[in-house]
Write a structure and sequence with these properties.
The protein is mostly helical. Helix content is about 70%, strand content about 0%. It has 19 helices and two strands. A two-stranded antiparallel sheet has the order 1-2. A hairpin with a 6-residue loop joins strand 1 and strand 2. About 40% of the residues are buried.
Length: about 425
């Protein structure tokens, strides 16, 4: 029996569908639903349900699953991210913090196994999950937009002081979900992949334009920059592959015009840009504390200092907090800290060369040659990987789940059955 036949029969697909529906629905507002979805899918890796006695039993075909691990490097690389954090506990003195980070990384262990077990799925499943995710974030965005319209002056002034528009989860993570959703909608519009009725295309066009405007209104730099990177990668591979150089140049001009127009037409974005420029003028005067962007740069500098002291093994993930405190105090005579806001540097500082290698592994599976025929996958990965440059994306629960959600669903979509 082939892998597809095994995975599409019986109980397992129902666990997968239920888990992914909860994952998709809660991703932009509920860590509880996201955690529940992962627990459901993880449980299905162990428990087997049948219609005959004993009805419930323990799954025992682990040897078969282990062989499938080697069919695609994506499985091993994702699991390797978890194992690196787990292993770093061997030289961590602060075991509670090591346990906390390791627990947060468990989706990197469970979800690749879910991918192996589910095998190939119909693309309509993935479209359904994405549509639920987009619908959910649309409704939460309506509340945010309504609040912004009611208090636009106060919110713009708050942004000018380094604040952010209030969102159900971290505004940075929220904006990354919106950016990925925009690319998915664009794919549907361009490829006409999911239209059952003609009017659906107009709904997706409306949502595409709406989210383009909305992401500029909430003015989160990580999301906006990630979006432009994703759009650039998508259209570069889509157009240059078909030798459409003129259209490619027109795309670049369009992105440039869009950014200029957004700056001039969206007050919150103009406030964000003004605050960013002002911060750097303050940095030139030697000021950095309580300036969000400059604190990020300082955190990266401190991360590099840690790397200099622990270049091979890292501090051990459990000891990264104490070593960061010591480094801030020694270099800046300051007690308030931030972890290095760069995933490459943080992983290197905490887990050594193995940590750095694991993140480069994620870059590899994002842009490997087998993905080049799928601009949507490349664009989504461009958004996710770009966030690694100014965020420690994978060191928060929601950041880890957002990365894995879009990586796994886009992979299953790429390999899916029409």
């Amino acid at each position: 029996m082939n892998n597809s036949a095994i995975n599409h029969q019986g109980y397992y697909k129902y666990f997968f569908i239920l888990g992914m529906l909860l994952f998709s629905f809660g991703l932009n507002w509920s860590m509880f639903l996201v955690s529940l979805s992962i627990i459901i899918m993880a449980a299905s890796l162990i428990v087997k349900i049948e219609i005959t006695k004993p009805f419930v039993s323990i799954y025992t075909k682990w040897g078969y699953d282990f062989k499938l691990l080697f069919k695609d490097p994506i499985y091993l690389i994702l699991i390797f991210v978890f194992l690196v954090n787990l292993i770093s506990g061997l030289w961590s003195e602060e075991k509670p913090l090591w346990i906390w980070f390791t627990r947060m990384m468990l989706p990197f262990l469970f979800l690749p196994m879910v991918m192996i077990r589910i095998g190939t799925v119909p693309r309509k499943w993935i479209h359904g999950f994405w549509l639920l995710c987009i619908s959910s974030i649309f409704f939460t965005s309506i509340w945010i937009l309504f609040d912004y319209i009611q208090h636009s002056q106060e919110i713009n002034e708050f942004i000018m002081k380094g604040g952010a528009v209030k969102t159900p989860i971290s505004h940075i993570r929220y904006s990354i979900i919106i950016a990925c959703s925009i690319l998915i909608l664009m794919q549907w519009i361009v490829k006409k992949e999911v239209f059952a009725k003609k009017f659906e295309r107009w709904i997706y066009i409306f949502l595409f334009i709406y989210f383009i405007i909305f992401i500029h209104i909430i003015s989160v730099k990580s999301g906006i920059i990630g979006l432009y990177i994703g759009l650039f990668i998508y259209w570069t591979f889509y157009l240059l592959k078909n030798k459409k150089m003129i259209q490619w140049l027109a795309m670049i001009a369009t992105l440039f015009i869009l950014s200029i127009a957004a700056y001039n037409l969206v007050p919150s974005l103009k406030s964000k840009v003004a605050y960013t420029v002002w911060q750097y003028s303050e940095w030139q005067k030697g000021k950095w504390l309580y300036y969000s962007d400059i604190e990020r740069l300082v955190s990266i500098q401190m991360g590099l200092e840690i790397v200099k002291n622990f270049p091979i093994s890292g501090t051990g993930i459990g000891d990264i907090e104490q070593v960061t405190k010591d480094t801030y105090y020694e270099c800046l005579n300051h007690k308030e800290i931030k972890y290095a806001h760069n995933q490459f540097i943080f992983s290197w500082a905490a887990c050594g060369l193995l940590g750095l290698l694991s993140i480069f592994g994620l870059v590899y599976i994002a842009f490997r040659k087998s993905n080049w025929n799928f601009p949507l996958v490349l664009g989504i990965q461009g958004i996710l990987i770009s966030s690694f440059l100014w965020e420690m994306t994978l060191e928060t629960q929601m950041g880890t789940c957002i990365y894995l959600y879009f990586t796994i669903t886009s992979y299953l979509w790429m390999k899916g059955e029409d």
